[in-house]
Write a structure and sequence with these properties.
Length: 212
Amino acid sequence: MTTSTDEFQSPLLEKAVTELSRLPGIGRRTALRLALHLLRRELDDAEALGNAIVALRRDIRYCSVCHNISETDICPICASPARDRSVVCVVESVRDVMSIERTGQFRGLYHVLGGVISPMDGITPDQLEIDSLVDRIASGEVKEIILGLSATMEGDTTCFYIYRKVAGVNPDIKVSQLARGMAVGNDLEYTDEITLGRSIMQRTLFSDSFTL
C-alpha cells in the first residue's frame, strides 16, 4: 500500500518513512511509528542515531582473512595471539560468529562464507568465500576445519562441497562438524548458547555423516 504526501502532511516525514521502510522487517506502518518517535526525542538523540549509522557504514569493513566485520584490515579475533590458529570454524554469516563467541567454548579462528549454496536462490559456490578458505588451508597452518553451518539442506550441501574441495587440497586435514544437538532445520543464530557450546565441544568427523 502506498501512502501519499498529503496523508503524511510533510514531505520530510514521508522521506524518513520511505528510508526506514527499506530496512528488513520494517513495513511502512512500523517506519511511521519510528519516525514519529524520533520527532518526540531531543535533536541530539536523532543526531546521535544518524551519526552512528553513518560511522557504521563508513568505518566498518570486512576482515581480509576471515571476512568477519572489523574496524581494521584484520579483525581482533584473527589478530589475537591467544587464539588457536590451527582450528578454523566455517560459518555462514557474521551473526553466527557472534553466536559462537557468546558460548565461550571456542578459541580458534573463523571463516565467514557470506551465505550457503542455494541454486533455488541463485547462490552458487563462486559467490561465497570458499576459494579464500581453500587458500587458507593450502598455507598449511590450519589442521582442522569445523563446519559450523546450519542443519538445513542448503547448509549440508555447502558442507559437502567444502569437504570435497578441502580434501583435494589437503587430504590429511581434519574436517569436523557441529554435533547434531541442534534441531534439523534450525539456524545457528537461533540456537541457545548451551546447546551450541555443547555442539562445538562434541563435534564429530564430517566423513562419519555420509558414505562416499
